[in-house]
Design a protein that fits this description.
The chain is of the alpha+beta class and 218 residues long. It is 30% helix and 20% strand. It is globular. One of its GO terms (biological process) is DNA restriction-modification system.
């Protein structure tokens, strides 16, 4: 790990602590007034990925989440009312030229999945998985199967959802069209009132590929 990576990890851990403090500082008031905790999981996830990877956002411009064309999907289980999922993973049902087509994946260098959950041991945690949609054959096959099901009418929804491993110590993210094990870039857990790094693997940004979950059970 080089000095730049170390600095980015330190900044990421700082951001995680800021997010935790902001979330739970308002949690009690939200409960007392009968409201869910107001928290922008999407925004926090995008900022975290930018801090960790150095890929900046688009500022106030419309388009992808990051300025290289990459996207970020976030889900947070902390005091969640509904079951958090990664929503709108691939584009469908819009007037965009690459909607409902694998061409959409060809425009995206990385797809990041950020999950804020609580481990089986009760520790607040944040994990980031990374997909390289342009070159990942198994991920592309899963998306292709879903697009085909939309095209022939088996599926009406425009929301391609992935189900993260909430509270589980696995990297398996599930969907009807593919239960895959995803390359994990980063994991941190809160211990002794601060987040600490559990794993970091920059190599997944260069060489990471999804595998079928069943293959990991052999």
């Amino acid at each position: 790990m080089n000095s730049d990576e170390k600095q980015r990890i330190e900044q990421s851990l700082y951001l995680l602590n800021e997010h935790y403090d902001a979330f739970f500082s308002v949690s009690k008031i939200a409960q007392e007034t009968g409201h869910p905790v107001p928290m922008d999981t999407r925004g926090w996830s995008q900022i975290l990925v930018s801090v960790l990877t150095g890929i900046k956002g688009l500022e106030r411009k419309k388009g992808a989440d990051l300025d290289d064309g990459s996207d970020v999907k976030g889900a947070n289980t902390w005091e969640a009312i509904d079951t958090p999922r990664f929503n709108g993973v691939i584009k469908a049902g819009t007037h965009a030229s690459h909607s409902d087509s694998l061409d959409y994946l060809d425009t995206m260098p990385f797809l990041f999945f950020v999950l804020w959950d609580v481990s089986a041991l009760g520790k607040h945690r944040c994990r980031i998985w990374t997909v390289r949609p342009q070159v990942d054959p198994i991920f592309r096959d899963m998306c292709s199967g879903w697009y085909e099901a939309r095209a022939d009418g088996r599926i009406k929804s425009t929301n391609f959802q992935l189900h993260p491993p909430r509270g589980k110590d696995t990297n398996d993210i599930r969907n009807t069209f593919g239960n895959l094990t995803y390359p994990i870039l980063f994991c941190a857990e809160r211990e002794q009132e601060k987040f600490t790094l559990k794993s970091y693997d920059y190599d997944v940004m260069l060489n990471g590929l999804c595998v079928h979950t069943e293959a990991t059970m052999l």
